[in-house]
Amino acid sequence: MNDQAGHTVLRADRINKYFRMPVVFHVLKDITFSVQQGEFVSIMGKSGCGKSTLLYVLSTMDTDYEGTLYLNEEKVSGQTGDQLAAIRNAHIGFIFQFHYLLPEFTVLRNVMLPALKLGKKSEEEIRQDALDKLRLLDIHEQAEKLASRISGGQKQRVAIARALINEPAIIMADEPTGNLDSKNSRNVFEILDQLSHEKKMSLLVVTHDREFAEKTDRIITMEDGRIIPV
After folding, report:
1. Domain count of the fold of the chain
2. Could you list the residue range(s) of the whole structural domain that residue 125 is in?
3. What's the CA gap between 109 and 131, in Å, rounded?
4. Which of 109, 134, 218, 221 is close enough to 140 for a disulfide, judged by CB 3.0 to 4.6 Å?
């Protein structure tokens, strides 16, 4: 997948999704939008509007939908589970509300893991890349500590470093500041904003935080499974 300046990184074309148990429920309704390279986009809406469900479809982790999804203008809908897992690992970085670090590993090892799985570089190169990412997030001094031994705000920084390790086309985040105090929330926003505008990374963030969303390039508002026209 080639990166060209200013190209469309993610495109959803008429995505529909139904929950079938216990009754049929139309949860995503004709979702069509795109994200450009370097764009920082937030998705807002009340609980239950479908925004987290949409993120899981866009991330290729949920394949039970109708419509078409493109990443770097290549169609990913209809690919096999193994193909999608490879696409996710190589081209999509994830940041969740909970950091999901492995507590028995060091900070450095946690950041290295997705790149070790990808297997495109030597372990020494990956180690250097991981240190570079930790330095970018100003947490490299914690590299050799166990992940269980650092603070909540630090853990979220490490989770961001891990999301960056394979130089993804897009970073997707689900409530990345949901468990953080206001100071750490601002720090996380500033980090993501810098990645977007200085590193030209694309970001798509589901958030309840209005203050956070209003500082992003664009807000997509959802209601009852639809995107509300601006």
Report:
1. 1
2. 8-227
3. 10
4. 134
